[in-house]
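Figure 2 data, in text form.
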Amino acid sequence: MEASPLIALPIVLALEPVAGAAPRATFSRDEADELAALVAADLHTLLPQVAQARLALAGALFDPVELLRPGFPVWATLDELGRRVPRASVEQVVALGSHEGRMPAQPLEPAPQFAGGPMRLLPMSLLAPETLAEELAEQVEVQLVGRGEAGARTADWLMRTLDVQLEHARYLSRNDMMALTCVQYEHVNLAPLWSLLETALLTPYRSEEVLSTRGLALRYEGGRVLAQSPAAWLAAQGSDATERAHGFAGIVFELRQYAALLDAHALPLRLQSAPDDEGEAGWLLEPLATADPAGDTPQLYAHEAPGLGVVAVTVAQRGEGGRARVLAHGYPLQPQGLGPLLAALATRYGSAAELQAPGRIVLDEHGRLAAPAVPLH
């Protein structure tokens, strides 16, 4: 008779180092074994039913953004490796640590750029038989949030092994961790972003539409987030040119915040007006028209805002009478994205390599994003 499948119940051990402390990212195989034994003892005290389950633990410390990604790849990998243990008995501990500086699978490798975060999370799963899983899942949600402080021996071992002081070390369910992340995003006026992310994590087959705090429309669908073009947002604003330019800079700043976090959560971002392949993590491109072979060589114009640098790049081509016709707008989402954006625009439109900089956000007589009416040369 085939053994019943093991149901994965994801949890974390959340560590809060003292300010300024940066623990190393992974534990060796031997260290992971020691830690797993301590964790198993803690969980047995909190959840006696754990004795009938298998504990799978990854000896690595992650930032929340690395764990909260579509498909939960860290847990998916951990669960797969944990299930590979022969099933003569589920009452086992599976500890995965690093060997010669490497974890046994790429998704279990923490990314260096997130190593300095204020909370470090060690992922684990309880792999329970179907007959136990529902009851154990309920207890995980009830007991960990109320009584989940790590045991004194576990906390002491972590501080000695990592050579850091910890403010807290506590167990959380994945749902607890998601709720905590939601509160953090709400605190910095990014609640709409959490709505998109929560849909991508829990119901990726659905779509979700939100407005950012400043009024930019965003939609999750098909595994990506589609943002309203900043130029389209600008076209719907009031008539005062100074306020429009200031608002446009604010919208691009907000879009950059969203882009950075969506990239960290491995959610692609594109523009609603150009959803297919028009951009990368560091920039977005909004095509509007094709170049006229009879016109002048297209030029690149920078739109700049104080404190933000180049917030947009407009490709324009001058034709008969010297009037500029806008071909595209590009949006650098991070400083290192400007160079690749300019290269993509030059390749696509055959524009001159030089970026002309009027030193401000240029609007036409209708208040739309534009090129200067008079050539800068």
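Caption note: The chain is about 35% helix and 25% strand.
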